[in-house]
Structure formats: C-alpha cells, structure tokens
Design a protein that fits this description.
The complex is a heterotrimer of chains A (353), B (368) and C (89).
Chain A lengths: L2 H6 L22 H15 L20 E8 L5 E2 L2 E2 H15 L2 E13 L4 H18 L2 E10 L7 E11 L15 E4 L5 H10 L16 H11 L3 E6 L4 H13 L2 E5 L7 H10 L12 E5 L4 H10 L7 E7 L6 E4 L6 E2 L13
Parallel strand pairs in A: 4-5, 9-12
Antiparallel strand pairs in A: 1-6, 2-3, 4-6, 7-10, 7-11, 8-10, 9-11, 12-13
Helix pairs in contact in A: 2-4, 3-4, 6-9
Chain B lengths: L9 H14 L4 E7 H9 L2 H4 L4 E8 L1 H4 L2 H11 L4 E5 L13 H6 L4 E3 L3 H10 L4 E8 L4 H14 L4 E7 L2 H10 L7 E5 H7 L4 H8 L3 E4 L3 H16 L5 E3 L11 H10 E8 L3 E10 L8 H4 L19 H5 L31 H7 L7
Parallel strand pairs in B: 1-2, 1-7, 3-4, 3-5, 5-6, 7-8, 8-9
Antiparallel strand pairs in B: 10-11
Helix pairs in contact in B: 1-12, 7-8, 8-13
Chain C lengths: L4 E10 L6 E6 L2 E6 L11 E5 L2 E5 L2 H15 L15
Antiparallel strand pairs in C: 1-2, 1-4, 2-3, 4-5
Classes of the chains: A alpha+beta (353), B alpha/beta (368), C alpha+beta (89).
C-alpha cells in the first residue's frame, strides 16, 4: 500500500490527488517554514498566554512541586474509530501527568512530518490536538517542526512533553501496595488496541470497535477527592494492557495480583473481536482507561467515585493483592484454580491456531 | 456468546472433573491432538485440575510449529522479491526460519502483510494489480478449505497476481506416526474437533481398531474438553477402544462434504516434511496440476532447499520427545533456561500454540 | 490449531457458490464471512468460522441435547454408570 493511501486511511475527509502536501522546504527554516508555522500551526494553538511559539516559552512562577513527562506518539492508521493521532498525543501526556498525581498545565508539541503528507491531514490532526488540549485545560506553549524525507517517518510523529502541578496527596506509587489492596479498572478494557488493529488490518468489523482514547483527568480527580490518601497508585494501561501494568507493579511491590475474570469489564465488541482473533483483552492496549490500587477499606468508595465520572459507569473491582507467589499475576477463570497471567511479549498478533 | 459461554459453565466443569476423577482408577495418558485444545486446557487449568487422574500429552497440532523450515525460508525469500507482498496469518510471523522470522524479513525491507483470512489476500490482490500477492498457506485440514477457496476465487477472477506457498499438513498421518513410534505412551486420543468438522471421523475407525486406542472427537471449551476426557477415560477403564464424537454440535460423521469438495478441487495429498518429525507420508497437501499456475514456487522459480541450517538447536532441543509425549516440556533441562519464547531452541517453543510455549506461558512446572 | 468461533448468520450478501458471503455476528460485532462451505446455512443459524470462512453449521439440536445431558449432571440426576456423554457411533 502506498503511503498516501495509508495516511488517509479512515480519515474523515477525502484527500484529492492534487492536495497540497508537505515538502522538505517546509522544514528548511525559510519562508515556507514560517508560513507553515504562522498559518497552519499557530492559529490553532495561540492563546492569550502564548502569542507564538518562541524557542523557549516562559510561564508563570508557581510555588509547588512539578511533574514533568514526555511521550512520543505514533499510530497507524493516524485516524481510528474513536480518535486520532492528534488527540492521542495530548491525552497520552496529560494522562501520564494525571496518574502521577499532577494537574496538567502546559505542553510542548514537536512534529516530525514525513515529506508528502497532505496538509489537510496535518490540519485535521492539529485541530484534534487543539480540541483535546482545550478539553483538558492545558496550554500548548512551545513547539517545533521538522520535515523528514519520504520513507523516514510514518506520515507524522508527535512528541509532547508536559508539565503539571503536583497536588497533595500524591499517590505514593506501586511500592506502597499492600497485601489485601483492591485493584480497579475505570472502564471496559482492550478498546483502543482492538479499534486500531481492526482498522489497520482492515478486519472490517461492524460496528467498528471504538477506542477509549480520552483524558483520565476527571476519573483521577474523582478518586483523589473521594479516597485521597488511601490511593496507592494509578496507571493508564496503555501498551501491553492491564497485564503489563500489573506485572510492573508486582515487580515493584513484590506481591501477587489475583484477578477474577468474571469481574473484568469488556464490551461486547471487544469480546467478539477477541474471540474471533484469539486474543486476550488483558494484553490489549487502552488509551483512556486506568488501573487503580487502593486500600481495601476504601475500595467501594473509590469504585462509586469513578463510576460517577461520565464514561466510567462500567468501572469495576477486578482483583486483589495477595502474598507473593511464583507467578506475579494470576487469574481465576470460570472454574478451577487460579491460572498464571503471562507477561506480554510484543504486540498481540491474531492467531488461527 | 452463544455456544461458547454455556460450554464454560463452572458448575458443569467442576462436576465433570469430579466424575473423571471418580472414573479413573489409574493415571491414563491421553493426547490432545490440537494446539487449540492445548491452549484451552492450560488457559483454564484443566491439566492441573486433573493431575493424578489423567496425564495430558500435547500433540503435534500446532501447524505453525510443524511448518518446515524450508517453507519459512521460501516465504522470506518471496517477501524480499521486488513487487511481491507476502500475506500470512499472524501466528506465522514470529516463527523463525534459518534467517530469522517473517517479522525479521519485514524489518529488513521485505513486504509482509498480516491477514485474518486468505480471501482477504485475494481481495488485496484484486485491488492492487501492481503487486504480486503470495499467501503463505499453512495449517491443518481445518484451514485448507479457506486457502483452497482463495485459490478458486483467484482462478475465477482470472487474477495473475495472486499465488500461494502451500505448506498444509494433515493430522491423521501424524497420529499414525506417533502410534508407530517404539516408545509411544499415548493410550487415548482427543481428536481435533475442527479438523473433524471438515474431514469427519469415519477414517478413525480402522485407526482405533488397529492400535486398540480410543479416539474421541473433542471440542475446545472447558466443558467440551472435559466431556471428551471423561468419555476417553470411561472407555479405557472398561477396556474399549472406539471412536466417539463428543463434539456433536460441530462435527458430523462424514464431516462437511462441501468443504471437502473445495479442498479436493484444489489440492491433492502429498508427503510433507514436518518440523521436528521429518517427512510424514501423506502428511500434507499440494496444489493439483490444474491450479499449478497459482503455485508461488513455480511462478517465481524458487526451489525448496532441504539443506538449511535449522537455527533452533536440534541437538539440545528434544522436540521429538515432547511432541510424542515422551517428555513433558517442563522436564526438559533447557526449558525456561536456554529455551524461551524469545530465544527458542526448538519448534514447540516458537509459537504460542506450541506445547513448550504454552507451558512457558502458563508457568507449568513452576506454579505448584 | 484451529481457532473456530461460533457466530450467527445475520444476512446473506451473495449466494454465489464460490464467492458466497454472509454477515455473521460474534458477540457485539459482525463481519462478512465466506460461505462456500456452508451453502445451506440460513439466517439465524450458527456457523463455526475459521480464518474468515464458515467451516460448518452448528447443530443446535445436538448442542441442546448435550446441554440437557449436562443439566442432568449438574442436578446430580444422572448416575455415573448411566452417564453417556458422547453420541454413540
């Protein structure tokens, strides 16, 4: 498949063959560069506090501890049911800040554009990023643009770095997880991975499974407001899914996580797709669903708090922390003794066997 | 989901376990032939539930594990030809040939496409006349109708840019080979349900008689598997050795004639080299002469080289012992040490359906 | 080998003997599946789908019979020596 078709796959707007495209000259610092920045990028992000992207942004002095993170975003296809690369690049970094216990304030955004990318696609992606930033009340204060020759990138890569204000009480982290703690998820799992894979591989499911791509700020805020210092740790379960998060936590706290399959929320779409493709939703990526470890006495309160948040009505307690066993994560399926949950190795591939 | 959830019912499954335990007076050695059955048995912990009553040996039914290394090498070669797109099932992408896997081929510039269905590859060929699409046709009798149908469709469409690299395998000749091995331990077979959906189970009658071994056509959900095991154990305890169908909802005695016609139109039976087994007589399919124009090997003038170095270590790997049930994966001295799914010494560790990989995945040998 | 998933035939799209296709439902999703091997399947029937091809029809009566046998097991109505889970062939 040639690149231009790949880029426009699932794009909500048609791309004509004579569409204006990014050329190497757009990245060479001269007039075209200036116009790209001033006519296409800045109008979408300029706010009262940042009239333009200087090489360095100056922001207000704030008297608290900060959280800083950076994340590079690439997704094929760039547009998928339920989201796109633009909003994903904002939510991804915002969510990393939120689960660390910070209120996201500022982002920087760096674009690496492949020569030949239709400008309308770039515009569409930037619109989506700007919309997501507005929704999350973060300001994009600095940015950079590079154009690389055709073949050196997959259409568009976006790096965003974020700064947030740490708010007390900051969840202490996975080392604080204790035996008996409960594990929650904020919604049905596996939606992003199935949505992207179905589109990328043209599995042609109807309806197209939707990604959960979105901000977790409200879910985290609701948890903090309700059970504050009783939260142990929160993580957005991106690549590797819930299984990857729990394996990491198990390494850090030294306990075993015991899940109950019947408690894990999965949509009918993801269930059907996973049965058909031979995948386990536990290993499939999420982009707006968090895993929470909480003091067991406050688990029900935490659950109710998350469920109040729009889109999180299916949040559930999916397991608990047990004394260390040989296997760091186990699952009780319909019957019999708990079975080990493997650590994911590489992206899940559909199987016929 | 209907016809899945009912057959994962915990009350039924628990009761069936109890009955199997009550019936088995000695630890019978059963082989589940199909990798899908292995996956389900381990995923639901059925092997653990039955410990002491039944020993389950994981059969050769993982077609990507038994796909001969020369076929993978050919697929890689094809993927690297200019203008050629090699389409493959996801399972096959990580299996190493002598020069790495198809994923390696993609990383080094080869054009490799993952498809869910062989007919999707035909559609791709139809909409991309500038590309030569080669489908890597692996799998057992269950998968052969799908790849044969793809060939029939390409034939009717008159596509000149679609071809197949055929490496299909047939399961019953492998069961025959296992029974003829001098130190065979298998006392009963759970035959592969979906293979039988196509082929039926008539042909197992003489096999069961000749070898005095019960053959139970068995499905894939926990209740299906336990039902098959109970039937097998009951026969063994009463000294009978018959063919029974425990997967009646999906298998008819004569199989699916429509599917058989599709397969017979396109393929004929052939000897086939199995990784870890060697050449098994009548152990595979090849394209019939009428469809030879769809043979990727012919189209691109490639020959299968028999003398490839297997990157997996055949001296240290005891795949033959594992696949024939003489050795449990976790009792192999290399298991989980020198041999892991990330760096397999042998075929059963390469695919998630392979017996060793399944053991590794479910931490058998370390959990209890 | 052989991941086969039961799905419900929702709508025939094409009845051609080679290119026949139907929309088949699996849980919350539907997908076009090729039907050349199950030409007699009707809307409402369940088929086992493997690699995008329906490979056989699900025999609902047989499934019901199996489940009824199982229900008897679960209720403890059927004694072990009477229990015969497999179809006699």
């Amino acid at each position: 498949m040639n690149n231009s078709m790949q880029w426009s796959r699932n794009c909500p707007i048609p791309i004509s063959s004579d569409a204006l495209r990014i050329s190497l000259a757009h990245g060479e610092g001269a007039r075209l560069s200036r116009r790209l920045i001033s006519e296409i990028i800045l109008p979408r992000f300029a706010t009262a506090t940042s009239r333009g992207f200087a090489d360095a942004a100056t922001v207000t002095t704030i008297g608290c501890r900060l959280a800083i993170c950076t994340d590079s975003h690439t997704v094929s296809p760039m547009f998928f049911p339920g989201g796109d690369l633009g909003s994903l690049s904002v939510y991804g970094t915002v969510n990393d800040l939120a689960v660390a216990g910070a209120y996201p304030r500022w982002l920087t955004m760096s674009l690496i554009i492949e020569e030949g990318l239709p400008i309308v696609i770039l515009e569409r992606i930037l619109d989506s990023a700007a919309h997501a930033a507005g929704e999350c009340k973060v300001t994009i204060v600095a940015g950079d643009t590079k154009v690389v020759p055709r073949g050196a990138a997959d259409g568009l890569f976006i790096n965003t770095s974020g700064v947030g204000e740490l708010m007390d009480p900051v969840p202490p982290g996975p080392e604080s997880i204790q035996v008996g703690d409960k594990v929650l998820v904020s919604g049905p799992i596996g939606r992003h991975g199935i949505a992207v894979m179905s589109t990328r591989e043209s599995f042609a499911f109807e309806p197209s499974p939707l990604s959960d791509s979105g901000s977790v700020i409200h879910a985290v805020a609701s948890l903090r407001n309700s059970v504050g210092e009783h939260l142990r740790t929160i993580r957005d379960a991106t690549r590797g899914g819930v299984s990857a998060v729990l394996h990491e936590w198990a390494m850090e706290c030294g306990h075993t996580f015991a899940l109950t399959e019947s408690c894990i929320p999965v949509t009918d779409e993801v269930r059907g797709a996973c049965e058909l493709l031979g995948l386990d939703p536990l290993y499939v990526a999420n982009e707006g669903t968090i895993v929470i470890a909480v003091d067991p006495l406050f688990a029900e309160i935490a659950l109710n708090a998350v469920r109040q948040v729009p889109g999180c009505g299916q949040a559930a307690i999916i397991g608990e922390v047990q004394p260390k066993r040989i296997t760091p994560v186990t699952i009780r399926r319909n019957f019999g003794s708990p079975q080990p949950v493997d650590e994911p190795s590489g992206a899940p591939l559909p199987r016929i066997c | 989901m209907k016809f899945i959830d009912e057959f994962r019912d915990p009350v039924l499954a628990t009761e069936l376990v109890r009955r199997i335990r009550a019936t088995a007076k000695q630890p019978w050695v059963l082989m589940e032939v199909c990798g899908g059955q292995t996956h389900s048995l381990l995923r639901h912990g059925i092997d653990v539930e039955l410990q002491g009553a039944v020993e389950l040996i994981h059969g050769p039914g993982c077609p990507v594990c038994v796909t001969d290394i020369s076929a993978i090498d050919l697929a890689q070669q094809l993927a690297s030809l200019p203008g050629v797109v090699l389409a493959s099932f996801g399972d096959m992408l990580r299996v190493p040939g002598s020069q790495g896997s198809l994923l390696t081929a993609r990383a080094t510039g080869g054009d490799v496409m993952m498809v869910y269905s062989p007919v999707d590859a035909v559609r791709h060929a139809q909409s991309h006349p500038d590309q030569q699409v080669v489908f890597f046709a692996v799998g057992f009798e269950t998968t052969a109708p799908a790849t044969a149908l793809a060939v029939l469709q390409a034939h009717q469409l008159g596509l000149t840019n679609f071809s197949v690299l055929v490496s299909h395998v047939r399961v019953q000749p492998a069961m025959e080979a296992l029974m003829q091995a001098p130190d065979n331990r298998v006392e009963g077979f759970l035959a592969a349900g979906h293979v039988c959906s196509i082929t039926g189970y008539d042909s197992y009658d003489s096999f069961a008689k000749r070898h005095r071994v019960p053959v139970i056509v068995t499905g894939f959900e926990p209740v299906d598997l336990l039902q098959g095991i109970l039937e097998c154990v009951t026969q063994l305890e009463t000294g009978t050795a018959e063919v029974r169908n425990s997967y009646g909802r999906s298998v008819e005695r004569l199989g699916n004639p429509a599917a058989q016609r599709v397969v017979d139109t396109v393929y004929e039976i052939d000897d086939r080299a199995w990784r870890g087994f060697g050449v098994i007589p009548a152990g595979g399919y090849r394209l019939r002469e009428e469809y030879a124009t769809f043979d990727a090997q012919r189209r691109f003038g490639l020959t299968r080289s028999a003398e490839k170095n297997d990157p997996t270590d055949t001296k240290r790997c005891r795949a033959g012992d594992v696949l024939s049930g003489r050795l449990k994966p976790c009792d192999c001295p290399e298991f989980g040490k020198a041999c892991t799914p990330d760096s397999p010494l042998g075929a059963p560790m390469v695919s998630s359906e392979g017996a060793c990989a399944a053991y590794f995945r479910y931490h058998r040998g370390s959990l209890t | 080998m052989c991941l086969g998933v039961p799905g419900k035939v929702v709508e025939w799209i094409d009845r051609d003997p080679v290119f026949g296709r139907a929309l088949v439902e699996f849980g919350g999703i539907r997908r076009e599946c090729h039907m050349a091997c199950v030409p007699d399947a009707e809307v409402g029937d369940y088929v086992i789908v493997h690699a995008g091809i329906a490979i056989t029809r699900v025999n609902e009566q047989e499934a019901q019979r199996t489940l009824q046998d199982f229900a008897a097991i679960a209720e403890g109505l059927s004694e072990l020596d009477e229990f015969n889970p497999a179809e006699t062939v």
